[in-house]
Amino acid sequence: QSVLTQPPSVSGAPGQRVTISCTGSSSNIGAGNDVHWYQQVPGTAPKLLIYGNYNRPSGVPDRFSGAKSGTSASLAITGLQAEDEADYYCQSNDSSLRGSCVFGTGTKVTVL
Amino acid sequence: EVQLVESGGGLVQPGMSLRLSCAASGFIFDDYAMHWVRQTPGKGLEWVSGITWNSGTIAYADALEGRFTISRDNAKNSLYLQMNSLRAEDTALYYCAKDHYSSSWYSLDFWGQGTLVTVSS
Description:
Chain A is mostly beta strands.
């Protein structure tokens, strides 16, 4: 079971801003572990979107931004586009699980 | 161009074994840790196992209860997952993924397309 909790779904109209939360605990995000975000378009493999809380890999539009505070993190998408409709997952490490990787529960973003 | 190509999936009966492989290219394989991540159809991502560049550190998800073994052959640029005592709940698409670092778990920079494992009688 996932130890990082995300809202099941968020939606917005084209051009709007949406945010996705990722809530953890003192053994993962709150322990100082970095948070990473992935985008998964249906039928395709996940793609790294944000690493190290707020860094974008080459090629990722600056419409995507990440932040972290305390035991939570968030992903913001500004200027929402139809192509942003996908599932989004956060990921971190958890010291209570021998440093294992843990993923969030996932959030479906729908562009209205 | 980084490429990760998984193989070895298929239909297997409960209790049987299966070995997955991941062929890597386009980067210096033994400079990075590697992972297996699985996804049940229509569900979320579940980390399965990780291995550092020299196999010095290996970790597994607790839920696997010791049934899976990860390994790598740096000479062959390949990652493996030996899965024993398979159960219906192991049915999933299994992804191979490259870590950002060599000796610890961080972000998974690149992913393969996955290989489907179906456990059913």
